[in-house]
Amino acid sequence: MTGQLGVRARAILALAALGVIGISALADPPAPVNAAVKAGSSDVAMFQSVVGRVRAGAPYYATMGDELRRGHYPARQVFNWRTPLLLRALAAVPTAVAASALIALSVALVVFTVMIMARQPRAIAATVVFMQSGVLMTIAVPAALAMGEMWAGLLIGLSVCAYLRRRPMTGVIFGLLALFVRELSAPYCVVCTIVAVVNRRWREAAAWLCGASLYSVYYTWHFLQVRAHQLPSDLAQPSSWMEFGGLRFLLSAVQWHAWLLLTPIAASVLALLLVLAGICATKTPIHVRLASAVYVLFFLIAGKSFNQYWGMMAWPTWAFACGYGVDAMRESIRNAFGLVWAPGGASRLVQL
Fold first, then answer.
1. pLDDT tens for residues 5-33?
2. How open is the CA angle 288-292-298, to the nearest 5 degrees?
3. CA 291 – CA 309 distance, rounded (Å)
4. So what's the pLDDT on residue 28?
5. SS3 state at 339
6. Contacts for 139 with CB less than 8 Å, ≥ 6 apart
7. In 3D, which of 204, 148, 197 has the Cα closest to residue 172?
């Protein structure tokens, strides 16, 4: 009986904490979605211009610097100069080929998600597939093609799928590809490396560390190229990227999902609650839990108000957390109100 009361008390506290978060989020909603879309569109327009000019034969770094200055971006900040892999790759192939590759990655993510969830309880599987289908719909926006966050998020999602299918080296490959596409993938790579080390999977850990070493060389070269193309008149960054936007910015990042962009803010609050519940659930696979948690923490600390579209990086993983979150909240409600399934598999509920 004491154990049951302890479980019930923890369930009540968890529900209360989630409720407080939801009320706080609704009381201090993020910036309007239209404003966020407009801010993201200006970045995309710049990247599209870079791709077009590089495709026509212009050098990448000179073009990037020129576009940053035209858009009045702080070109003195190295982080504002995107690493060249994705944009150069887009410039090297016809738009139709690049779009087909993005669609193929999205479809592969949904297909693998369905395969992985086939043996899970119906509530978990249905929620995960539904939220993952929203990720697929997000790429229908033409601007997604030039957004590194979309490509990196899909690659991280495929890496998580590989881990769930017990193919860690495939997970490493997809994770490192995401890192080379967008440096914001680093938190995911770090947690995967830690998991590999803690579990003494030395071959996998060595692969992550080798990839990190290659990336450090790549980013050092990128840094030197940027420095060589900066001008004394370039604008400086007025403030740090570590804005500590807290719950308000986190919720704005959660909104960057096809279904949530079309619904009231309350739907985004519910989605965030499910993600948090999934992170706390013991049934959630370790890579889903840690990858989801690291981006929740990251968005609480880093990112400016106009960087809300960074949420696209996390959603392929948060979709899994949502499914396990539904199951965790259902169990918490049962425990909180003293309800359990009757013995013998009966479908009725009985009071403890």
1. 444 445 545 555 556 555 555 555 555 54
2. 150
3. 18
4. 56
5. strand
6. 102, 103, 106, 150
7. 204
